[in-house]
Amino acid sequence: MGEIGKVIGRASPCSFYIVSAGRPPPVFEYLTYKLNEGGKEVDVVAQVVEPVSESRILTEYTSLEAMEKIMEKGLDSPYHYALVKVLGYLDGEEIKLPRNPPEPGTSVFVADDDLLRRIYSSEKGIDVGHLLTRQGVRVAFDLNGFRRHLAVLAATGAGKSYAAGLIMEKLLERGATVVVIDPHGDYTKMGIDRDGNPVKDENGTPVFWYDRIHVFHVPGEERSYPYENVKEFTVKLKDLGLEILKELMGVRETWTRINEAIDEAYKEIGDDSGVEDLISKLDEMSKSKKEAQGAERAKSYAEKLRNYRVIGKETTSIRECLKPGTLIILDFSGVDDSILDVATRLVLEEIFNCKRRREYRYPVFLFIEEAHRITPADRKTHSSPIVRRIAREGRKFGVFLTIISQRPRSVDQDVLSMCQSFITLRIVNPEDQSAVRRSAEKMSEDLLDNLPGLNVGEAIVTGDLVRLPVIMKFSGRRSDEGGRDIDVERELEEAVDEIRREIELNPRNLPRPEEVI
């Protein structure tokens, strides 16, 4: 491409300014220039950080009258320049940073698409979108980049679930085993298009992994799934433990007799007991003169456990579902935080121990949605130790973690800091931006400054997934989104239609249909 400007002023190996004859290149635009490195000429790639159009005559102190006269006589001559950040150059398959600065006066060009494809595109990786400034340049994530874990962070509605679902699709296409902890049912339409049909591949046939989707849900929830492999998920009462059970019952530590009765009943019931067994034991104890006072009141509190249908006589195992090209969705929507915590712990421990004992051969890609609820920054949960252990040791055993959250500041910072790749979509909250700044070592200040200005689906990607930090647009997801926002306008239109139908069926003392909005 043609020359867009020349290097001016002070230049370093990391950044420099260019001056351009016309309008400056837009922010995020990719540029290139020639540089002699180690005795050979290389094409260095750089990116526009701050384009500037400046007038030396029309300043903030120029009056409106003076400005009009200056412009009428054509005396103003704007000055166009831009701050440019050096990204690096390709040396074989490796990206290297130059050791030398460009000389002032060096010609700078707009980088051509082929050069950018060599950096960001790859048939070996998974195609997840395109460069924000170049729709013709696809972005591929390096599969080996998942080994050191990933964080997907964004404000609500910025597109993090879309991005995570797209990554899941691409991993499944490559034969991956994917497990997602889904507290809101955001991924319960994976493999289904917006018309309710199985998504199709490039050949127009249903994707092979559609029949390999397994959903586990809370018993008694009135929810339909478009899959054949649907099972209830239960947590054994004894796996919850006394602390959680008392919390669910609403029993305080100071209620001595009630606590003593629950402790005694819990100790006497068998390992495979359920809620009704605990209640029956307390009922039996209430009829004893010695234990009646505390047991009778304890029984009334234990009866509250009937509201938690997830508590059963055994904890559901997902081990048999671990197979290549398989998606396991743990739909924990509507579950109390305490049970979500324990259920997540049990699932993660089963997966980690299975891999640690080499009982399953292939890598497991583990996605944790709403990570700030499961491994929060301000307290230790039952899940915290196993999440930290997977973050610390998972790569050795083939368990690769993806943390997803709209509140980075509320996620355990130790876990977040062990993620070597970050997909950061729009973030407006300054505290969340600070959390990203602390954890994402490769997120430079100029990239952080652009977080509030990103549109839906646009993201900054840093770390081992990509050769160079990239600002991109996610695209190409086939599956519908379970957590997609409703179309309020369309819903209200349908509500008005229903009102009209009711009026027509029962017109007495009601306005005519044409009088309705």
User: Regarding CATH, which class of the largest domain?
Assistant: Alpha Beta
**What share of residues is helical?**
25-40%
Number of domains: 4
Structural class: alpha/beta
- The general outline is elongated
The CATH superfamily of the largest domain is identified as: P-loop containing nucleotide triphosphate hydrolases
Would you identify the regions where 5 or more consecutive residues have pLDDT less than 50?
A: none
CATH architecture call of the largest domain: 3-Layer(aba) Sandwich
Q: Strand fraction band?
A: 15-25%
Strand order of the largest sheet: 9-8-21-20-19-10-18-17-11-16-12-13
- Average pLDDT, to the nearest integer? 89
Supply the number of helical segments.
14
Cα gyration radius (Å):
30 Å
Q: Report the sheet with the most strands, covering strand number, pairing sense and barrel closure.
A: 12 strands, mixed
Please report the distance between the alpha carbons of the first and last residues: 57 Å
Work out the number of β strands: 21
Give the CATH topology of the largest domain: Rossmann fold
